[in-house]
């Protein structure tokens, strides 16, 4: 069995680490060898955060190199563009259409780039873009975008929904479980 590589990308505070733990718990329960690696930029200040999740029969390294990633799950459009070159031919980008201004945009030194999704598609990337923020808000919090995205990925993963739900219950603190279940269901159906 080949090793599958997934990158979860976003900005600090969006919950990419929780999403990677959810995925890691699910894949471990499925019997895969799983390696996780977290790379933080200025995460406390809204900087780029990327998590690598690799799984298969035997995985020797958690690091994903350029051109070998099977899936990118992006919590924000600019982050999808930043890491797109890591995707292998035939790989897929699942991206939240939300825009979060990076520091140069906040300070007025730059403008948020327009046409990011069109450019990614023009470059031949398989882009699955949708609004994950609205269903997260409807579930109870903008912070649930991560679980909406994981629900969306889950529906396309080939792993039974019940197994995802069990991993969600194992990973999410009990006081946030109801909201995250709603977020997962919204993403799964979206």
Description:
The protein is α/β, with parallel strands linked by helices and 190 residues long. It has one domain (4-189): Pyruvate-ferredoxin oxidoreductase, PFOR, domain III (Pyruvate-ferredoxin Oxidoreductase, domain 3), CATH 3.40.920. It is 38% helix and 24% strand. It is built from 8 helices and 6 strands. It has a 6-stranded mixed β-sheet with strand order 2-3-1-4-5-6, sandwiched between helices. Strand 2 (33-40) and strand 3 (48-56) form a beta hairpin. The longest helix has 14 residues, at 16-29. The chain starts with a strand and ends with a helix. The model has no long low-confidence stretch (mean pLDDT 92).
Topology:
Layout: E1 4-11, H1 16-29, E2 33-40, E3 48-56, E4 69-74, H2 77-83, E5 87-96, H3 103-106, H4 116-122, E6 126-130, H5 133-139, H6 145-154, H7 161-171, H8 177-189
Helix pairs in contact: 1-7, 5-6, 5-8, 6-8
Shape: globular
Helical amount = 25-40%
Fourth-tier CATH superfamily name: Pyruvate-ferredoxin oxidoreductase, PFOR, domain III
Number of helices: 8
> Over the alpha carbons, how many angstroms does the gyration radius reach?
16 Å
Please report the total strand number as a whole number. 6
Query: Distance between termini?
Result: 30 Å
Strand order of the largest sheet: 2-3-1-4-5-6
Please outline the major beta sheet.
Answer: 6 strands, mixed
Mean pLDDT comes to 92
According to CATH, what is the class? Answer: Alpha Beta
* Total separate domains: 1
Give the SSE order as H and E letters: EHEEEHEHHEHHHH
């Amino acid at each position: 069995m080949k090793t599958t590589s997934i990158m979860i990308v976003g900005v600090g505070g969006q919950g990419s680490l929780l999403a990677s733990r959810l995925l890691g718990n699910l894949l471990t329960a499925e019997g895969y060898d799983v390696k996780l690696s977290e790379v933080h930029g200025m995460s406390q200040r809204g900087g780029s955060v990327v998590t690598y999740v690799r799984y298969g029969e035997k995985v020797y390294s958690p690091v994903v190199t350029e051109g070998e990633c099977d899936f990118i799950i992006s919590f924000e459009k600019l982050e999808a563009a930043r890491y797109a070159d890591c995707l292998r031919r035939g790989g897929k980008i699942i991206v939240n259409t939300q825009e979060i201004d990076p520091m140069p945009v906040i300070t007025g030194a730059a403008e948020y780039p327009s046409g990011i999704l069109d450019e990614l598609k023009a470059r031949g990337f398989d882009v699955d873009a949708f609004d994950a923020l609205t269903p997260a808000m409807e579930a109870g919090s903008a912070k649930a975008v991560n679980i909406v995205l994981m629900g969306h990925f889950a529906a396309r993963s080939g792993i039974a929904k019940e197994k995802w739900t069990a991993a969600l219950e194992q990973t999410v603190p009990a006081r946030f479980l109801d909201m995250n279940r709603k977020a997962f269901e919204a993403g799964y159906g979206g």
